[in-house]
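Changelog entry

Holo records now carry the ligand SMILES as an explicit input line rather than a separate metadata file. Below, a converted record for adenosine-5'-triphosphate, shown in the new format.
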Amino acid sequence: MNAIQTHQLTRSFGNLKAVDRLTLEIPRGTVFGFLGPNGSGKTTTIRLLLGLLDADDGSAQVLGFDTRKQPDEVRVRCGALLEHHGLYERLSAAENLDYYGRIWRMSKADREKRIRELLEPLDLYERRGEPIGRWSRGMKQKLAVARALMHRPELIFLDEPTAGLDPVASSALREDLASLVAQEGMTIFLTTHNLAEAEKLCNQVGVINHGNLLAVGSPSELRSKTSAPRLYVTGQGITSQILEDVKSNALVKRVQQQNGKLVMDLNDLSRSHEIVTKLVGAGVQIDEVWKEKADLEDVFLQLVEEEKGEAE
Ligand SMILES: Nc1ncnc2c1ncn2[C@@H]1O[C@H](COP(=O)(O)OP(=O)(O)OP(=O)(O)O)[C@@H](O)[C@H]1O
Ligand SMILES: [Mg+2]
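Structure line, unchanged by the conversion:
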């Protein structure tokens, strides 16, 4: 069964379509990364999926429940870390979690067990008695993730979980998240601007802009779908005639010459040796040859650029 399924989900604010006919299927156990520029509709989508906001049109099922008709069923089964972490600064870490656990009617013994289970892997268990007011941002963020997981949700929404953290803290939080997911086997829906993060954590990625879903797939599918694989060659004797010959080769989509380096977008990277053989035959003295696939950042920028082009 899908953890999340939406059909033509739409929500406007005045004239602005914040989410525009979004159709999405996310199987259980997926770590789904929702990528998009500022104001593209990511948080609005989460609010729609949690039943915190009504759709104008279309429908959404979360864990099999209709978000419009059964929002309470959805909310008891989901955890969420939205833009504000919602922790009480004057309470200790353990008190924060305990308070939350009581809202979910967990027994005292279960609350204690769960607090230990969550805080130990996050390296916060020893500090559970401290009021969190003076904790660092990264520590609070970890605690906020723990809070969202407290009642053992089947699905968790994390809206920019690593925003504002330094690279070391965000990498640590990513590792913690990855091990918690592996341990608990839950579904995660997270938003991020950090493409490297999506690449590391997520097995499925969706790209959204202006409320439109531009692409969905695994990071590697998106890379190969969107961007041509690249071949780089450096060497001596790359004349303008040779450049012209390369340009007219059917394998080559695009050629650029950058600082004495040939950069070629190929249709099929597995046939790159044909190009190299031709260059050698034409008298090029090759220093280095290497291949590179586009990273998610290239893909993302390309999709957003294409969408801009279409909208104009
Ligand atoms: N309650 C609201 N009232 C009016 N407009 C809203 C409201 N909530 C969101 N919007 C608008 O909807 C659009 C999408 O906003 P949303 O918060 O979903 O973007 P986002 O992708 O989460 O952006 P960010 O990356 O900056 O968090 C924006 O143009 C925003 O101004
Ligand atoms: Mg947002």
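Spot-checked after migration. The radius of gyration is 24 Å. The chain has two domains: 2-224, 228-292.
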